């Protein structure tokens, strides 16, 4: 088996020693090349080349941003027009039909050894947050030929593994990105959330949400999940759509009001329980094949916890069985 280990040396818990231990362990089972990233987009370029070269496995050692780049690289050339995974052959995609024109060709398998602060994708797969233990899990899975297929989300041409969103959460992500160094803390996110709430950088443009079979709904911020938990605040999971998983469609959690009582109620429930949230200000759906969100003015847009710019329209599509992960 030919494999590439992609290491982000700037990730929170990656070290040179840990990289060497991981590389040595992997090299005992596969023919391995090691690449350290040194610029944004480097991991994606490496993974794309690996897919083109017929590499069998790409292991991402870093945070969720590194994993996201690797996933986008692995699938960059794999999406081909054709039969819909969900809708059985329609090449027309609209919120009303819920069809999806993507078909995934062969791609290398993905391995993950967490090295970030949240590691949401890895945790959702049952991978230990400890890099040494995660390495043992990966080696055991390779030895026993153990893997699983996972569904992913596609948003405006960008793949996401666990969440994406428009509005408040993307404002927070953007604010954190400007202030953090290598270490990211729950306190930093809390402060960014409070500041973004009271001083939204782009205001609060109205969002119009369209999902199959429903009338358009209005909102001020929207969260789209590909699994549960949606994210973590330190060690505490944030549950927005508890029924969401890698085997289901996308989850939508949107608020059409951001008054303090509404925000406190839903934040408290998201941190305290996995039960389905309800409320008159809440627009919530599970297992959606697609979602389209239009904004009256440009709003911030984030994918897997990274700000990727501003948008006035984003289409989110669920793509089942998109990727093989070694677990």
Task: Explain what you see.
This protein is of the alpha+beta class and 327 residues long. The protein is built from 8 helices and 18 strands. It has helices at 16-27, 42-52, 64-74, 120-124, 131-143, 168-179, 186-198, 260-272, and strands spanning 2-7, 31-36, 57-62, 79-81, 102-104, 109-114, 147-155, 158-160, 163-166, 207-210, 217-219, 221-225, 231-233, 236-238, 250-255, 282-288, 290-303, 306-326. Strands 7, 8, 9, 10, 11, 12, 15, 16, 17 and 18 form a 10-stranded antiparallel sheet that branches. Strand 13 (231-233) and strand 14 form a beta hairpin. Mean pLDDT is 90; it is low at 81-94 and 96-101.
Summarize the structure.
This protein is α+β, with helices and mostly antiparallel strands and 327 residues long. The protein is 28% helix and 34% strand. The chain has 8 helices and 18 strands.
